[in-house]
Amino acid sequence: MSHNEMKLIMENWRKYCHGIDESTTTLPPVPSAAMIVTKQSISGMIDMWKQYQIMKDPECRKDPEAKCGWKHSDKYFHCVAHCLSSSRGWGGKKISEIFGTAREITDMIRKGDSDEAVRADLIANELGRRAAESGACGECWKYIPNGLPESLWIVPGGKITDAHREAVAENTECNIEFMNMQAEAMPEYCRLKYVKY
Q1: Which domains does the chain have, with CATH numbers?
Q2: Of 76, 86, 79, which Cα lies nearest the Cα of 127?
Q3: Helices H, strands E: what count in the chain?
Q4: Phi, psi of 34 (to 5 degrees)
Q5: In 3-state terms, what secondary structure has residue 190?
Q6: d(Cα 42, Cα 95) in Å, to the nearest integer?
Q7: End-to-end C-alpha distance for the chain, whole angstroms
Q8: 1, 7, 38, 126: which has the fewest C-beta neighbours closer than 10 Å?
């Protein structure tokens, strides 16, 4: 079979499968894979940037040295940002991996973050990426600190219940398990609760 005969068969097969009359119809341009990945990557970066902005309250932007924002919410917003970015597709997931790792390396060098803090951020990032695979950013909810407004919560099933509220109420700086997830030390006044006699 010649090349021209094969080409004619393929064209007729495409017309048959799609019911296309090429004399009256033009096909829309098909986006290239590179365009799709680029769009996913840009959307993923925007998702991560938005979550960072939500994490910081407006007062933080007035004073860059201020320690403010939602207390103990860093890991939650890491998880959600990487989940939203990764849910954009392959491009969003790759951006999540690249920027997540680069950010932690930068924080270690510039801010002197401890190995434990970096590891905790990377774990939150990875949980977000895995949550995106199942289509449920609500898996990040275990990082929600007590005091974070419910309008910012993403929970499994999408509907906040009393069970969620009760669990989040326990996520305080005196909860040793929660603080270990945050890679932060409990304040001294909380430690007294855990002293065994």
Answers
A1: 41-55+68-194 (1.10.132.110)
A2: 79
A3: 9, 0
A4: -65, -40
A5: helix
A6: 8
A7: 89
A8: 1
Residue spans of alpha helices (H) in 107-161 = 115-133
Residue linked to tokens 């390396």: 105
Contact in structure between 173 and 179 (CB atoms under 8 Å): yes
- 54, exposed or middle or buried, with CB in 10 Å at 0-12, 13-18, 19+? middle
Token couple for 44 = 């993923």
Q: What is the pTM of this model?
A: 0.74
The string of pLDDT tens digits covering residues 148-187 is: 889 889 998 889 999 999 999 999 989 989 998 988 888 8
In order, the DSSP letters of 16-85 are HHHT--TTT--PPPPPPHHHHHHHHHHHHHHHHHHHHHHHS-HHHHH-TT---SSTT-HHHHHHHHHHHH
Q: How far apart are CA 160 and CA 150, in angstroms?
A: 8
Sole residue written with tokens 């509907």 = 159
Question: How do residues 51-60 score in pLDDT, each as one tens digit?
Answer: 888 887 655 5
Q: What would the two tokens of residue 186 be?
A: 């409990």
